[in-house]
Design a protein that fits this description.
Layout lengths: L1 H14 L8 E6 L6 H14 L3 E5 L23 H17 L2 E5 L8 E4 L2 E4 L5 H11 L1 H6 L8 E6 L5 H4 L3 H18 L3 E4 L18 H5 L4 E8 L16 E4 L1 H10 L5 E4 L11 H13 L4 E9 L7 E2 L19 H14 L3 E3 L25 E8 L2 E16 L6 E7 L4 E3 L5 E3 L2 E20 L10 H6 L3 E4 L4 E6 L12 E3 L25 E10 L5 E7 L7 E6 L2 E6 L5 E3 L7 E10 L3 H8 L9 E2 L2 E3 L17 E3 L14 E6 L8
Parallel strand pairs: 1-2, 1-11, 2-3, 3-6, 6-7, 7-8, 8-10, 10-11, 12-29, 30-31
Antiparallel strand pairs: 4-5, 8-9, 13-14, 14-15, 15-19, 16-17, 16-19, 18-19, 20-32, 21-22, 21-23, 23-28, 24-27, 24-32, 25-26, 25-28
Helix pairs in contact: 1-11, 2-3, 4-7, 10-11
Length: 673
């Protein structure tokens, strides 16, 4: 059965995704501050998290001012022999670790420039000879230093959307033919490929007037097109942040349509870029945005951003002024691997087969530009994208709550399966009703939820959790965790200050309910940011034979939780429904429960605004304002992306519960609770 073979291959890709499907991430060097020790540590961390490649930026002067972040002065000159030594070392470390290395071919994020004899120049992109000369100067030395890595580890050069056209002038057609086309030709001649956000999303011209920009035509010059998306709000500022349609600004439609028109297999997005307060977002907040990108037809995310921050800058250290930070100084950095694995699993399927147009595209005509998605109904409960490989149809579905989704595939003679990329598990829906070549599938997705719905020939594979209809008939045994919790606290390893003292919580309680405003010593729980280890015991009765057991944490307000049961690592709860499978660890009788909960940096940074520099817990390149934030908008000081102020609201933090163990039994026999 061809369908069974294809479905099995898809499942193997899903369960054990290939390296080629890993997401990439931006790697920002702040004015050349990237020593060998930090380079190695950063790249090893990226590999450990599950990233497959890096996009290295060492941008000089691009929004590098006191209204954004107080960045350290340049340590070495961009393009100097010492600079190339460090870049080559980074490339060779990538080769050792199995990471792809790509780089921005400029010393700026918005123009094509570099340095000669210590002086900065800007390339006239209306002159193809100058474009070639710049690439020879900027990238050529690396090709000579590491010819063995070209096309293997060093695979692509990159350019962002050309925002410098305001100064250069000229038409978009000229930019396309003399810049993007020339850059691609040069890269191919030297064994490299090229990607960029050609022609968007800004599309501005002289005096702010729009140019006649055909983004599809611009993006056609890439070996894979790239767009971007931004969170509109920061974590904790809206209760409905699970609805990504209400919380994202997307430049995806042009990249998706260009890839389909040009036959490109990869559609990439710069992901999670924002200019809100630093260190205020976490994986649960970011997931729905990734899901909408996937549902739009994107299949490679490039996480923005992982900043290179040597030890000399402290913790959380030096940062680029925009992006959702994921570097080694982030509180939940190591546990982010669970989210990266989710992205990896999704991309493994979304890079398989071919896209199927179910009529979701609108505004396909050329000569359009700017931000936007292309869905007809952006407020629908479920948003989907459809792909097909052989005679297997599969859909990525993003949404939340109970409801039915109608999918453009017939289930006659085929089984319908639901694959969960968060857990790596699969099940069959309670029902799947087929009519007129379409199938209605009932779904019950958590906040910010998602799944794959797969249509394959009968007998393709056995579901890991059996039939969902049967599972509904077997209500789980629920064991509440009601004993007191012993809680201890630890800052990031790079912090020397004393954390709050250990305590006992008779009932779970949010951290910001402790203490008083303004009293922000390092030992105050109200302003604590880091990891709290919650320990307790719970007695579980027998349930034989047992299907599985799940530890439910209730709902986490921010952050994530790493769960251990009887000393066994049971994984990370990082998104709704905030639970982990503990089947392999739980036992009849008494069980030791340990939950290592980590929140964001935000509260500690607000607390440090009340303190003098010598008393602060953190050290960073952002501003600490001891005055209330005045006004709103990005032009006020301090801006939301330049730093924190004493008037900034705290994020809810801590385990709130209710925590419980749910035991699913294969028979009705239950002993004890």
């Amino acid at each position: 059965m061809i369908g069974a073979i294809v479905a099995t291959a898809l499942w193997m890709n899903f369960a054990n995704p290939p390296d080629s499907a890993r997401p990439w991430c931006y790697w920002w060097w702040i004015n050349g501050h990237a020593d060998r020790e930090t380079i190695t540590a950063d790249l090893e961390a990226m590999k450990s998290l599950g990233f497959g490649g890096v996009l290295m930026f060492d941008s000089r002067g691009y929004w590098d001012d006191e209204d954004h972040l107080v960045n350290p002065k340049a340590e070495i000159m961009w393009g100097s022999p010492e600079w190339y030594d460090r870049v080559e070392f980074a490339m060779r470390e990538c080769a050792r670790l199995g990471l792809e290395f790509t780089m921005n071919a400029s010393a700026s994020g918005g123009t094509l420039n570099g340095f000669i004899d210590g002086k900065e120049y800007e390339t006239d992109i209306m002159n193809s000879d100058e474009v070639v000369a710049h690439l020879d100067r900027a990238v050529g030395p690396l090709l000579k230093r590491a010819p063995d890595l070209v096309g293997k580890t060093f695979t692509h050069i990159y350019s962002v959307s050309y925002e410098g056209n305001v100064r250069t002038g000229g038409s978009w057609k000229t930019i396309k033919d003399t810049f993007y086309a020339t850059m691609r030709k040069w890269a191919h001649e030297h064994g490299l490929k090229v990607y960029s956000e050609s022609g968007g999303p800004w599309a501005w011209g002289a005096n702010g007037t729009k140019l006649d920009c055909d983004q599809l035509d611009m993006l056609a010059h890439n070996d894979f097109p790239q767009g971007e998306f931004w969170p509109v709000f920061e974590n904790g500022t809206r209760k409905a942040t699970g609805h990504a349609n209400q919380n994202g600004r997307f430049f995806s439609r042009a990249a998706v349509l260009s890839a389909r028109r040009e036959g490109r297999s990869i559609v990439s997005l710069e992901s999670f870029t924002h200019m809100h307060r630093h260190w205020t977002v976490d994986p649960a907040f970011l997931k729905p945005l990734a899901d909408i990108a996937f549902a739009d037809g994107v299949n490679r995310l490039v996480w923005h951003t992982f900043t290179c921050s040597p030890k000399k800058f402290g913790v959380p250290g030096a940062e680029y002024f925009a992006g959702s930070h994921v570097n080694r100084n982030v509180t939940w950095h190591k546990d982010a691997a669970a989210f990266v694995k989710y992205i990896w699993r999704c991309q493994a399927l979304l890079q398989r087969g071919q896209p199927v147009d179910d009529g979701e595209f609108v505004n396909i005509a050329t000569n359009y530009y700017g931000w936007g998605r292309f869905r007809k109904d952006g407020n629908a409960q479920f948003t989907t994208t459809h792909r097909r490989e052989g005679d297997v149809d599969f859909f990525f579905v993003a949404g939340e709550g109970k409801g039915e989704v109608t999918l453009n595939a017939s289930s006659e003679g085929r089984e319908v399966e639901i694959w969960d990329a968060v857990t790596g598990r699969a099940c069959r829906p309670a029902t799947a009703v087929c009519a007129n070549g379409k199938t209605r599938v009932p779904l019950d997705l958590p906040k910010g939820g998602s799944c794959f719905v797969v249509f394959a020939a009968g007998g393709s594979r056995s579901c890991a959790t059996g039939n969902a209809a049967d599972a509904q008939k077997r209500a789980p045994a629920v064991v509440p965790i009601s004993n007191p919790w012993r809680v201890s606290f630890a800052y990031h390893p790079g912090i020397k200050a004393a954390p709050p003292a250990p305590m006992t919580m008779e009932t779970l309680r949010g951290w910001t309910t402790y203490g008083e405003n303004g009293k922000a010593a390092s030992t105050e729980l109200r302003y604590f940011s880091g990891t709290a280890t919650y320990c307790t015991k719970v007695t579980v009765g027998s349930c034989v034979p047992r299907d599985r057991a799940v530890l439910s944490l209730g709902e986490l307000p921010t952050g994530l939780a790493h769960v251990f049961v009887n000393g066994k690592d049971c994984g990370v709860a990082w998104c709704a429904p905030w639970e982990v499978d503990i089947s392999a660890a739980v036992r009849p009788g008494e069980n030791d429960i340990e939950i290592r909960y980590t929140n964001n940096w935000a509260n500690r940074l607000v607390g440090d605004c009340f303190l003098e520099p010598k008393d602060r817990v953190t050290v960073s390149t952002m501003k600490y304002s001891q005055a209330p934030r005045m006004g709103s908008g990005w032009k006020q000081k301090p801006t939301r992306y330049s730093g924190f102020a004493i008037s900034d609201e705290l994020q809810p933090s801590g385990l709130l519960g209710p925590a419980a163990i749910r035991i699913f039994c294969l028979t009705k026999e239950r002993k004890g609770k």
